[in-house]
Structure formats: structure tokens, C-alpha cells
């Protein structure tokens, strides 16, 4: 039986102030989540556990307390918002209203200026997805847009729905292959 675990990074200082992208550290609540995640995962006693994170400090800090081999993969980095990195959605509305309107119109295909689209993210995830399909007991600690794409792949979510999927913070998502079907269970950590 194949079992994979997924989590977003703990709340970051940018989440607190509503900025997108960037490379902010965890907030105090995010650090608490990192502790609970490590305790939860250790209690499962998973044989040959591996942890895959992005290269950004908020995912690395989220998994730092977990005793297991850790890989930091750029393919798991958050959607890159190019010229719009480190802005709030309000600032975006003020500085790049046309971009925001275009994005609202076609969020899946929309590519940030000098940045990426959801379709670009899906493309860079292909090698990771093929690898993940052959593994068990991997915990992937990544970001909202990336986890939307990964979960959509396993659950065959229609492409147009991917940019709107709900992947909450401070929640562990367990995906198990049963026969030919993937099954999802979520555990919300009380933070
Ligand atoms: O920071 C970006 C978010 O994780 C993705 O949000 O694509 O819904 O704007 P969005």
C-alpha cells in the first residue's frame, strides 16, 4: 500500500501581512505548527520516511524538526509571481490592475510578468510526480499553488478547478492508494 503525506509550510510572516511569494521566515504560529507536525509524524513511526520540501526557508523550517532524510527541490517552490512578488493583493490592484483582471479572467493560464502560470508549475512538477508515484512514506512540504497541482494530479481534478482548490494551512493531508483509487484524509492541527 502506498501512502504519501502533504503539508503546506507553517504560517509565514508574509501570510500574516497578506503578501504573495517571497522568502519570508515562519511566524510564531508557523513555528508551533512545525513542532506539531514533527510530533505527529514521529508518532506514526513510518518506515523509510523521506521528507521533500521546496528550497524556500518557510518549508525547510517547517520540516526541520523531523528526523528523516530531507531533500530540498526547486520544483516544489511556490508559483513564482515575477514582478508581483512580495506584494499584497491590494498593492497588486493598485500597481497592476490589468494583470489582476487578466488573472481573474483565466487563472490557470495566466502568467505573472517575468513569472509563472499554474500551467508552468504543472510542467515543472512532472518529474516529481512520476517519482512520487513510485514512492511510499514521503512527506512533501510545499506551497498552496504547488500542492493544488500535485493533489489535482492524484485526484484527476479538472484543470480549470486547480487554481481554486482549497488547501488550508496547518493541515496534514494523507493520500493512500487503495486498489486503483487514491483516498484522502486530512488532519487539522489545533494551532
Ligand atoms: O502565494 C500564492 C498562493 O499560494 C497562491 O495563491 O494562486 O490563489 O493567488 P493564488
By secondary-structure content and strand pairing, the structural class works out as alpha/beta
Order of helices and strands: EHHEHEHHHEHEE
How much of the sequence lies in strands comes to 15-25%
Helix content: 25-40%
- Which descriptor suits the 3D outline? globular
* Associated small molecules: glyceraldehyde-3-phosphate
Q: Kindly, what is the distance between the CA atoms of the first and last residues, rounded to a whole number of angstroms?
A: 31 Å
Mean pLDDT across all amino acids: 97
Largest sheet: 6 strands, mixed
Count every beta strand, where a strand is a DSSP E run of 2 or more residues.
6
SS summary, helix count: 7
Numbering strands along the chain, what is their spatial order in the largest sheet?
A: 3-2-4-1-5-6
**Cα Rg:** 16 Å
Low-confidence stretches: none
Structure characteristics:
191 residues; 6-phosphofructo-2-kinase domain-containing protein; globular; binds glyceraldehyde-3-phosphate; 38% helix; alpha/beta
Written account of the structure:
In the C-terminal section; belongs to the phosphoglycerate mutase family. This is 6-phosphofructo-2-kinase domain-containing protein. Substrate binds at residues 8-15, 58. With 191 residues, this protein is of the alpha/beta class. The protein has helices spanning 13-17, 28-44, 57-63, 89-95, 97-105, 118-132, 144-155; strands at 2-8, 50-53, 70-72, 138-142, 171-178, 181-188. Helix content is 38%, strand content 18%. Helix 4 (89-95) packs across helix 5 (97-105) and helix 6 crosses helix 7 (144-155). The radius of gyration is 16 Å and the shape is globular. The chain is built from seven helices and six strands, in the order βααβαβαααβαββ. It has a six-stranded mixed beta sheet. Bound molecules: glyceraldehyde-3-phosphate (G3H). Residues 20-21, 78, 143-145, 163 line the site of glyceraldehyde-3-phosphate.
Amino acid at each position: 500500500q502506498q501512502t504519501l503525506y502533504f503539508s503546506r509550510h507553517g504560517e509565514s510572516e508574509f501570510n500574516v501581512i497578506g503578501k504573495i511569494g517571497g522568502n519570508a521566515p515562519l511566524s510564531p504560529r508557523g513555528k508551533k505548527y512545525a513542532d506539531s507536525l514533527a510530533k505527529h509524524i514521529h508518532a506514526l513511526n513510518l518506515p523509510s520516511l523521506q521528507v521533500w520540501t521546496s528550497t524556500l526557508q518557510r518549508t525547510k523550517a517547517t520540516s526541520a524538526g523531523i528526523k528523516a532524510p530531507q531533500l530540498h527541490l526547486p520544483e516544489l517552490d511556490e508559483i513564482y509571481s515575477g514582478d508581483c512578488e512580495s506584494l499584497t493583493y491590494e498593492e497588486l490592484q493598485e500597481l497592476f490592475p490589468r494583470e489582476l483582471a487578466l488573472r481573474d479572467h483565466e487563472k490557470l493560464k495566466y502568467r505573472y510578468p517575468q513569472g509563472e502560470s499554474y500551467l508552468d508549475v504543472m510542467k515543472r512538477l512532472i518529474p516529481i510526480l512520476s517519482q512520487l508515484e513510485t514512492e511510499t512514506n514521503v512527506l512533501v512540504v510545499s506551497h498552496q499553488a504547488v500542492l493544488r497541482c500535485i493533489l489535482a494530479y492524484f485526484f484527476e481534478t479538472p484543470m480549470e478547478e486547480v487554481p481554486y482548490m482549497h488547501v488550508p494551512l496547518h493541515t496534514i493531508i494523507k493520500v493512500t492508494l487503495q486498489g486503483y483509487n487514491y483516498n484522502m484524509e486530512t488532519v487539522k492541527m489545533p494551532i
